[in-house]
Amino acid sequence: MYQAIIIDDEKWVIKSLIATISNQNYFEIIGEFYDGSSAYSYIKARKPDLAFIDVQLAGMNGLELLQMAKQEKLPTLFIVISGHAEFAYAQKAMFNNAVGYCLKPFSRSELMDSMQKAYEILENRPAPSPSSVSVPQKQEALPHFPGNEKNFLPPEQLAVENKSVLSMLIYLKTHYTEDVSIQDLADLTSVTPNYASQLFKEETGFTFSNYLTSLRIHQAALLLLHTDMPIFLVANQVGYRDYFYFAKVFKRLTGFTPSAYRNASGSEDRKENAHEDSEAPR
Predict the structure, then answer these.
(1) Which of 133, 84, 87 is nearest to 104 (CA)?
(2) Which of 29, 175, 216, 281 could form an SS bridge with 238, CB 3.0 to 4.6 Å?
(3) Spacing of C-alpha 66 from chain mean position
């Protein structure tokens, strides 16, 4: 979970913000600050991942703090929270690299949109240690990491004889990125949705929704393994418009966050190559 702080001169605003963004597991509020100067000192020393910051602050206002952080090239991301719907404020905030400008009273959807943008930026930052190793595209199998009991069956390994279900699988293989439903499969095979669901489960061992999820996550894992595509684009590529939900589902099925999976994949590949080199005749 990434660390965030809130900077606002009114305590009730901070409490309101914390309540508005509750029930999410991506940013943990670790500090509250009521003036710009003390907040800037903390940010410079501790470098939290994200800061929610008001424009009007004592000591150093929010826009000045953003400007200082930009000049110092500090890694902290900023979401401006303001009671002023003024274009000049928003323009200056964005010029100084703010990732969002949210108005009071708070809208959860507006805040979550800005937080998702911040989360995607953080997830796609380069790892601290060099890890830009190209992964050979020699196979479609996914790596199985020690200690991960949640590896799932690649959908391609299913053996199905029923022609109707085979048609369903072919359809899903080419439409899994879309908002596909069991009704679509029922229409495809001219049966009722209930019967399509029952037949699908009997033949594949998966419920429709579990199969679709497995197919999407399997394809996402391949993209993470074989491409440098940003993770939020990987989510979109396999049919997930909500990045946070994608990350949650990916971890549930694989045991890893998408970024950890990509990094671990590279690590496993390097180990395998080192082992092969040591076994080679000299």
Answers:
(1) 84
(2) 216
(3) 25
